[in-house]
Amino acid sequence: MTNVFLVKYGELAIKGKNRYIFENRLVATIRRNLKPLGKFEVQKEQGRITVEPKEDNIDPQIVIDKLSRVFGIIGIAYGTKREEVSFDAVKELALEHMKAELEHKDYLTFKVNTKRADKRFPMASMEVSAELGAYLLDEFPDKLKVDVHNPDMILTVELRNGTYVYSKTHKGAGGMPYGTNGKSTLLLSGGIDSPVAGWMIAKRGVEIDAVYFHSPPYTSERATQKVIDLAKKVAMYTGGMKVHIVPFTDIQMAIYEKCPHEQLTIIMRRIMMEIAQRIAESNESMSLITGESIGQVASQTMHSLVVTDDSARMPVFRPLIGFDKEEIVQIAKKIDTFETSILPYEDCCTIFVPKHPETKPRLESIERSEEALADCIEEMIEEAIRTTEVVSV
Amino acid sequence: MREIYLDNAATTKPLECVIEAVSETMRLEYGNPSSLHKKGIEAENKIKESTAFFANLLGASEDEIFYTSGGTESNNLAIIGSALAYQKTAKRIITTAIEHPSVGDVFTYLKGQGFDVIILNVDEKGYINLEELEASINEETSLVSIMHVNNEIGTIQDIEKIGALIKKKNPRTLFHVDAVQSFTKIPVSVRKAQIDLLSISAHKFYGPKGVGLLYKNKKVRLQNMLHGGGQQKNMRSGTENVPGIYGMYIAAKYVFNRQREILEHYKACKTYLYTRILNEIEGTHLNGDVVEVSAPHILNIAFEDIRAEVLLHSLEQNHIYVSSGSACASNKMSKSGTLAAIGLNGQALDSAIRFSFSIDVTEEDLETCVDVLKKQLVLLRKFTLGGKKR
């Protein structure tokens, strides 16, 4: 008898011929996330992935916690396994399971649920459930009672490449396995919103690269480190990401010198979009992601969003567009990015924030202002991309 | 590229001989000083050697030296320990507005515990008013805690005068001195200054981090903070940090053997940098008292129209490491106690840079520093908020 985690995945099972690609991605991400915890055997098994610890002293709760942060997994059951597929094996595992369960309880209602992936097994599912129920009632006559409608415990038996018994299934992160739905580039700042936006798109199986603009000496090394830490938190759910760190000071200074101050932010954002999509293009990324939400700040009014969007050639996904701050904060707390996001390292950048930003910019007017940059901006963008540093997390 | 480290008031780089002494002690004298066998005695002897040295240095006796985890613990133990020990008869405790948080925040805590806390103001150079101090001390005053050298602007309080004044007004009032910034730089005699409690931290004078010292006058009772094995006369339970303590001793010995030349070196650094910056860079002025009378290793200069943290990072890009007198105004975690207390406000509060020196700093380093400052300031001032607008 060995301990085992049965990983259940949902949506991807219906994806037909590509199913094996999804499953392989999922197995790879599981292996990656569990690696720091010790040795595990991770295998595909007909609509499930089995995870067997190969070392003692592995805390199942930590494994469940890690697995529940992998996109594509809808549930994680923790139970026991025997290689042998027989009714004797079922009885033995179920008996041990009940013993452990009843150690701290006097009384329990239960029902048995059997899944027979191996259809060659001589007994039908209903038969296994009924006979196992009867056997357990005999073993614990005073402590057990069957209740098929509202049981305290559903004891699940799965008959496949081995015999599996468990009674608890923990909720997974849902979504689709990382890398099964193309690639997108996230504009990652140190704030609360952008990591959440990246997480939401990654949830749909999209592989993510991040772009961060840093402006030394106006933003510090600590601010960069904070962004890398945030990327690591999001990568827990995915399976790694690349952070492109773009030096942005010279461009900001050029805008500051040559353009009207109330338009600083909007022009800056348009150039950020331009740089992000060039980096995206050279990394097989098909779209951009931002953490924008309508009306949150001056640069995110409808007018500003329209003007910013105009600088994008590729689709820009804004999954938070209709969210209130409080809703975003809730997700940030759930995915554990909130505490990092609120660290106060990036505020020296406020020097480039105009006192009275334009909230209703018009595209023609912005484009006219940008003409002042025409002679230098292309060169500066190329230089910024050329000197971009890439960190893999 | 040479690193130019000018943040020695924050911490210093340990001396090679200290690193060696610490690792040798870890390797050889690994015993527990409380053990009855030979290994224990070997370790205990290391501590005794250190204790004899520090007692002699401070003009104290050996049973008045206690080891801690550093300045913060020494300050906490001295202040909370004495406040609690004498609270039945005396509830007033006095300190200044420019203390390090490991003193200031302790007073805030004790105020919440019902103590009568008096905070003395300072003038624009950072000195307390002795008359105000005298007036504040009453029959119920158990403790006066005053820092010797201020960590941000380097102002030196006249602790001998202060000690005499306290004892004249109320002989039972204890005098605690936070000497973390002054030790090895300004002479301290606990007898002369009538000091009852004195805090020291090793990493400010090329020693290891995580170790410090508290001098406690024999006659003073302290409520211990840590309870346990009863080490250090039950004043501070916990197995002694033998390698750290020995490393602190080696560091102090090194510095005191060369004290005159080291102090001359600090002064030369400070004068050079001060003179060049104030003469050659517009919109600069000194925070604190004139350079000749403030601490030799600390220089605090305000750069008008500059946000200190931005200047700090631009120096960092050139491998020059300094400290901003106070962090960004929008950084809610900042504590700008001293600068606000000497009357700076608004932009001035946010434009101070602290340079602090060590034995490693060379004249070429400071030359480079001035060159970089000149270059960066021209650049940064061009992009000042509220500057030009078209």
TrEMBL record, chain A:
<dbReference type="GO" id="GO:0052837">
    <property type="term" value="P:thiazole biosynthetic process"/>
</dbReference>
<feature type="binding site">
    <location>
        <begin position="187"/>
        <end position="188"/>
    </location>
    <ligand>
        <name>ATP</name>
    </ligand>
</feature>
<dbReference type="InterPro" id="IPR049961">
    <property type="entry name" value="ThiI_N"/>
</dbReference>
<dbReference type="Pfam" id="PF02926">
    <property type="entry name" value="THUMP"/>
</dbReference>
<keyword id="KW-0067">ATP-binding</keyword>
<feature type="binding site">
    <location>
        <position position="300"/>
    </location>
    <ligand>
        <name>ATP</name>
    </ligand>
</feature>
<dbReference type="GO" id="GO:0000049">
    <property type="term" value="F:tRNA binding"/>
</dbReference>
<dbReference type="GO" id="GO:0140741">
    <property type="term" value="F:tRNA-uracil-4 sulfurtransferase activity"/>
</dbReference>
<dbReference type="GO" id="GO:0002937">
    <property type="term" value="P:tRNA 4-thiouridine biosynthesis"/>
</dbReference>
<dbReference type="InterPro" id="IPR020536">
    <property type="entry name" value="ThiI_AANH"/>
</dbReference>
<protein>
    <recommendedName>
        <fullName>Probable tRNA sulfurtransferase</fullName>
        <ecNumber>2.8.1.4</ecNumber>
    </recommendedName>
</protein>
<feature type="binding site">
    <location>
        <position position="291"/>
    </location>
    <ligand>
        <name>ATP</name>
    </ligand>
</feature>
<dbReference type="GO" id="GO:0009229">
    <property type="term" value="P:thiamine diphosphate biosynthetic process"/>
</dbReference>
<dbReference type="Pfam" id="PF22025">
    <property type="entry name" value="ThiI_fer"/>
</dbReference>
<keyword id="KW-0963">Cytoplasm</keyword>
<comment type="similarity">
    <text>Belongs to the ThiI family.</text>
</comment>
<dbReference type="InterPro" id="IPR003720">
    <property type="entry name" value="tRNA_STrfase"/>
</dbReference>
<comment type="function">
    <text>Catalyzes the ATP-dependent transfer of a sulfur to tRNA to produce 4-thiouridine in position 8 of tRNAs, which functions as a near-UV photosensor. Also catalyzes the transfer of sulfur to the sulfur carrier protein ThiS, forming ThiS-thiocarboxylate. This is a step in the synthesis of thiazole, in the thiamine biosynthesis pathway. The sulfur is donated as persulfide by IscS.</text>
</comment>
<keyword id="KW-0694">RNA-binding</keyword>
<dbReference type="InterPro" id="IPR014729">
    <property type="entry name" value="Rossmann-like_a/b/a_fold"/>
</dbReference>
<keyword id="KW-0808">Transferase</keyword>
<feature type="binding site">
    <location>
        <position position="269"/>
    </location>
    <ligand>
        <name>ATP</name>
    </ligand>
</feature>
UniProtKB/TrEMBL annotation, chain B:
<keyword id="KW-0663">Pyridoxal phosphate</keyword>
<dbReference type="InterPro" id="IPR000192">
    <property type="entry name" value="Aminotrans_V_dom"/>
</dbReference>
<dbReference type="InterPro" id="IPR020578">
    <property type="entry name" value="Aminotrans_V_PyrdxlP_BS"/>
</dbReference>
<dbReference type="GO" id="GO:0031071">
    <property type="term" value="F:cysteine desulfurase activity"/>
</dbReference>
<keyword id="KW-0479">Metal-binding</keyword>
<dbReference type="Pfam" id="PF00266">
    <property type="entry name" value="Aminotran_5"/>
</dbReference>
<protein>
    <submittedName>
        <fullName>Cysteine desulfurase</fullName>
    </submittedName>
</protein>
<comment type="similarity">
    <text>Belongs to the class-V pyridoxal-phosphate-dependent aminotransferase family. NifS/IscS subfamily.</text>
</comment>
<dbReference type="InterPro" id="IPR015424">
    <property type="entry name" value="PyrdxlP-dep_Trfase"/>
</dbReference>
<keyword id="KW-0411">Iron-sulfur</keyword>
<dbReference type="InterPro" id="IPR015422">
    <property type="entry name" value="PyrdxlP-dep_Trfase_small"/>
</dbReference>
<dbReference type="InterPro" id="IPR016454">
    <property type="entry name" value="Cysteine_dSase"/>
</dbReference>
<dbReference type="GO" id="GO:0046872">
    <property type="term" value="F:metal ion binding"/>
</dbReference>
<dbReference type="InterPro" id="IPR015421">
    <property type="entry name" value="PyrdxlP-dep_Trfase_major"/>
</dbReference>
<feature type="domain" description="Aminotransferase class V">
    <location>
        <begin position="4"/>
        <end position="367"/>
    </location>
</feature>
<keyword id="KW-0408">Iron</keyword>
<dbReference type="GO" id="GO:0051536">
    <property type="term" value="F:iron-sulfur cluster binding"/>
</dbReference>
